[in-house]
Specification:
With about 400 residues, the protein is mostly beta strands. The chain has helices at about 5-20, 25-35, 40-45, 50-55, and strands at about 65-70, 75-80, 85-90, 100-105, 110, 115-120, 125, 140-145, 150-155, 160-170, 175-180, 185-190, 195-200, 205-215, 220-225, 240-245, 250-255, 265-275, 285-290, 295-300, 305-310, 320-330, 340-345, 350-355, 370-380, 385. It is globular, with a radius of gyration of 24 Å. It holds the Pfam family Beta-prop_KIB1-4.
């Protein structure tokens, strides 16, 4: 090969490097601010050093949740669906992570068998003690704060209708468990303003779990305050319910057949204190319907639910005042028309669907509703799981 050809071949990579670094910093900053998708922002920062510096210098944009299609299977590689642009992203879990049962803002997840906390985007890990037998049913774990904050408490429902707690602060942490006094089964739990709440299955009653520490400094439930809410939900048939933080207030979403003339749809309610006297806290609350989420979108799932603000200039398929939920299809359920993905991973075969609620905001009998989009899986007992990436 001639010397001139060698020069030409070696010059091409350098030329490619030069074009990306030739843009002024202020131009890169303007371009980066115009990129709204988190996936595209990650790509932008990966181009070269100057582009990465522009990304770091820009104010972060609030992230929107991604959907982890397979929270439980025999593969470390997971598929993440981005509702913003419909793209599919591959992500690798830490070795040994088989099933994810909880998530916190910023990409934090917790897996079982073995029990561990990791960040899917930064790779950071947090130590966590193994659970003793019978501590929880491996259905859902919630976080009070980011696990790296030094002030994070994990909470879950154990196998004996009780609450199990663990402080995430090092190898000396232990799980504590208490049996609930309530005769009902806890259907969902969440932290709201640092307080732990449980939702009783079927009747929508709420229990506030007061927390303290035992003689060893481990978190424990010291008291249960049963908030007497309206009993109108006793007359509702089969339903699916979630509790979550909505703009700093405890809220609940219920999907059921609200009207005999229509298919099941969601309604959202906010827990409201109806008296000013703070002494009688056990019988002063009621659920008030929320007919609009405003600039928020609501993401609901078996292991993670969150109301997230959607920027006004956000492009893509995520809308304000909209509910996005994930669930499993039963053999008797109607199959949605929109196929999202079909694949076999060697352990099982699943088929994923996306179905939009195309009904009007108000039905013919004036039953108000918030539109929703469902993500369904057929062939798996585990519904897809929402993951909230870090702001970028």
């Amino acid at each position: 090969m001639s010397r001139e050809k060698k020069r030409a071949r070696t010059a091409r990579p350098a030329a490619r490097r030069r074009w990306s670094s030739a843009f002024p910093d202020d131009v890169l900053a303007v371009v980066y601010r115009m990129v709204t998708s988190l996936r595209d922002r990650v790509r932008f920062a990966a181009v070269c050093r100057s582009w990465r510096a522009a990304a770091r210098g820009a104010p972060p944009r609030a992230a929107l949740p991604w959907l982890l299609l397979e929270p439980c299977n025999c593969s470390r590689w997971k598929r993440l669906h981005c509702p913003e642009d419909g793209a599919m992203v591959w992500l690798q879990l830490p070795r040994g992570s088989r099933r994810l049962i909880g998530c916190h803002d910023g990409g934090w997840v917790i897996s079982t068998a073995p029990l561990r906390i990791a960040n899917l985007f930064s790779g950071a890990k947090v130590t966590l003690p193994e659970k003793p037998a019978g501590v929880f049913s491996e259905s859902k774990i919630v976080f009070s704060n980011p696990p790296s904050s030094g002030d994070c408490i994990l909470a879950t429902v154990n196998e004996h209708r009780g609450i199990a707690l663990c402080r995430v602060d090092g190898p000396d942490s232990v799980w504590t468990r208490q049996t609930c006094k309530s005769c009902g089964t806890i259907d969902d739990i969440t932290f709201c303003n640092g307080e732990l709440y449980g939702l009783t299955k079927y009747n929508g009653k709420v229990t506030k779990f007061e927390m303290g520490v035992d003689k060893h400094g481990a978190p424990v439930v010291t008291d249960e305050i049963h908030l007497s809410c309206s009993a109108w939900m006793d007359n509702i048939g089969e339903k699916t319910s979630y509790i979550f933080d909505l703009r700093g207030k405890l809220a609940m979403a219920i999907r059921t057949q609200w009207s005999l003339d229509h298919e099941p749809f969601f309604k959202v309610f906010e827990l409201v204190d109806i008296h000013d006297d703070e002494l009688a806290v056990s019988d002063k609350h009621t659920w008030i319907e929320v007919t609009s989420l405003g600039d928020h979108a609501l993401f609901l799932g078996q292991t993670f639910s969150r109301a997230v603000p959607v920027p006004a200039d956000k492009l893509g398929h995520v809308e304000r005042n909209h509910i996005y939920y994930s669930c499993c299809l039963n053999p008797s359920d109607d199959v949605p028309s929109g196929v999202l993905r079909t694949f076999s991973n060697g352990c099982s075969r699943q088929k994923y669907y996306r179905g939009d609620d195309r009904k009007k905001d108000i039905t013919n009998d004036d039953v108000k509703r918030i539109k929703s989009t469902g993500y369904f899986v057929k062939g798996s007992p585990y519904s897809s799981m929402w993951i909230l990436p870090p702001d970028m």
